[in-house]
Amino acid sequence: CLSENITDLKNRLEKIIIGYSFEGKPVTAKDLKAGGAMAAVLKDAIHPNLVQTLEHTPALIHGGPFANIAHGCNSVLATKLALKYADYAVTEAGFGADLGAEKFIDIKCRTSGLRPSAVVLVATIRALKMHGGVAKSDLAEENVQAVVDGLPNLEKHLENIQDVYGLPAVVAINKFPLDTEAELQAVYEACQKRGVDVVISDVWANGGAGGKELAKKVVELAEGDNHFQFVYNEEDSIETKLNKIVTKVYGGKGVRLTPAAKRELKQLEELGFSNYPICMAKTQYSFSDDAKKLGAPKDFVVTISQLKVSAGAGFIVALTGAIMTMPGLPKVPASEKIDVDKDGNISGLF
Asked: Does the reported pTM lie above 0.85?
């Protein structure tokens, strides 16, 4: 996803570390003379896929590593291709302004030279109510106080976008049928205090027409000024980078490295990986490394249990808390609902 072209891809593949020698030196795919073969397998996969929406709008779907365990961005090639063919390109950095957006900025933008013009922060009334302490089973009921109680989470994301990353933002409320006017009003008032506009995004119900107001606001923001900046400097030490992410983006006090992580940190520095950006593997449910700490917790310490280098991608993965690096899947796969009748009609896709 971070490759610029086939040559860059091949170079990245050759840097992949598959193990270490008895002397502790990295053994790479290049040492095994496997780079060419690996590049051959991915020769066509490197090309972005052009698809279309239900309303025939073009979209480039290319790569999608999970932002809670990887860098959470689509391919550099797809983004640059979109910028060549359209006046405006919209790209997603998943799992909030603490995970996807931070990695988009500190990894993807840093290595590619890309610079965003504006940010759309997508929020839902349901998620705000959950951060306000409402159980998932009770989200359908109106609860303005729970929305208010959950707003510190939204405000922290806005603080990151505006103050840490230096970018203009608009809040898009992904509208659900049971959202009430009183609940929406609570969000409007909170965002107005930060000088941020709130726009209803109703594309689920109305398609492109439900996103026109949002599109106009994005164009307005994109044409204005911004003060884009990274969270940390490339020359910062690995531990400094970790602490800057936790204190500036998460709102915590800093990091605590386990004895194993300290040993890995020392090894990474000795191997010359100190300048690599950091890819935090962290729960998406909290700013902290504890999924149960909702809202906008403060003064917490993030435990770094493991540090490992993804030399091909070009970043250091920091595993926090009890994170699992296997992507989460639903209890009931979507495939169980999909079928084809005798006439070839497909059902169960939506």
From this structure: yes
